[in-house]
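User: Before I run my own analysis I want an independent prediction to cross-check against. Here's the chain; please return only the structure tokens and, at the end, one sentence I can use as a sanity check.
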Amino acid sequence: MQTMFIVKLRKKLCCFTAFQFVILLLIFNSCSIRITEKTILGNYYKIPYDSTRISRYIKNISDSSFVAAIKTLPNKKINILYKDDNLTIIRDYTFINDTVSLEYFVFLPQNITQTVYVFCGYGELSIGIFQNIMKLAKNNNAKVICLSYSGYGNSTGAFSINKQFGYNQIFYEKLKTENIGNLSIIGYSMGSLYATSLAVDNHVDNLILLAPISDGKDFLKYMKHSNTKGIYKLFSPFIKLNVEDNLMKISNVEKLQKFEGNVELFHAKDDRTLPFTMSEKLYQSSISSNKNLTFFDTGGHAASFQKENWDKIVELIFSKTGN
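Assistant: Structure tokens:
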């Protein structure tokens, strides 16, 4: 018994001494963590159409013909993905260079009065919000264009946060002659960075940001805070983030200080991925004379795509565009 007690005591003392050593090490030397694109993206630089993801997306869909259409997505050659009396969904590709081609979808209602571009967040395929886009297109006579990022779906290459800005502009240049009527751009989560950049550079009419990110600095600050809770909060002051310069330069705040078109912001107060304070900062930074910030009480990061919230978003978008 006495021997066991001594062994346990020694273990506790060893742990305590190790803990003290770590604290001293952090205080005098600090802890530097290198943040790169690879750090942020993790395994999400490529997301193909696989059976697991497709099954997850279609499990709550009752339209059997639409389910059948989603199942054909891995077949790159199918051009007309879906068609009914009111809507046609076309899948096509834009060639960026010898190694990158981007898959995109065009939602065409019978009568088109305006054009909407949609940029999704990273880490998920665009088919996750196809039903929302279909509703937007059908009910508002909107031609909706949705891009799959490099490495996502059937797009080739690998996703890169910074390279995608250039790809988006090439994509837009190739399609802009086909735009009809008033032009709106919707960006969700990280897609808000691409939506804002494209809107500013091309002077579009309306910018709609759903659960957006403010800038790289705020994002990293929030990630550091959210990942150092409890006892780990003691280490937070000593942790230094060594971040790639190009990531720190990404900023919706700076872009909105140059955009004069209509701005609509939507964010849930219980968003744990990107806090609603980011939308508040963007609203304050915007120079638009026609801007609006709408909060949802619940729903988390994907609150915008819940039926009642999506209906509200669409109503506000089209009341501003006049269509």
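Sanity check: Residues 2-29 form the longest helix (28 residues).
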